[in-house]
Design goal:
Shape: elongated
Largest sheet: none
Order of helices and strands: HHHHHH
Strand content: under 5%
Radius of gyration: 21 Å
Helix content: over 70%
Structural class: mainly alpha
Number of strands: 0
Number of helices: 6
């Protein structure tokens, strides 16, 4: 790779990582990773969702299992750390297409389509 392009790419990556939506995402992720209660809720949710899906595929799940899953989903939605992470994730995901459009405008072609095509 051309050294000038490599330096520019590294500079761009550092600036992108320092942008408000991406910084907020990484901070929210760190808080989520450090919160044992939130991690336990998410692990239990994944486990119950998987169990319920398997039971439904093999003949059905009891209503009390469905109700327990819904109750757990409510606990997840009321957890501030989890919800802050999900909101930060959504904002970061909404920000990246804007970045792609700006890069595409500067380059004069659809950068995202080229990247998806593999170069």
């Amino acid at each position: 790779m051309n050294p000038m392009v490599e330096v520019a790419a590294r500079d761009f990556a550092l600036k992108l990582r320092a942008s408000a939506p991406i910084t907020a995402f990484w901070q929210a992720k760190a808080q989520l990773d450090a919160d044992a209660e939130a991690q336990d809720l998410l692990a239990e949710l994944r486990e119950r969702q998987q169990d319920l899906m398997l039971k439904q595929q093999s003949g059905g799940a009891a209503q009390d299992e469905i109700d327990a899953l819904r109750s757990l989903q409510g606990k997840v939605r009321s957890n501030d750390v989890i919800m802050a992470y999900l909101q930060a994730q959504q904002q970061a995901q909404a920000f990246l297409p804007q970045v792609n459009r700006e890069i595409s405008e500067l380059l004069g072609f659809d950068f995202g389509a080229l990247a998806r095509a593999g170069g």
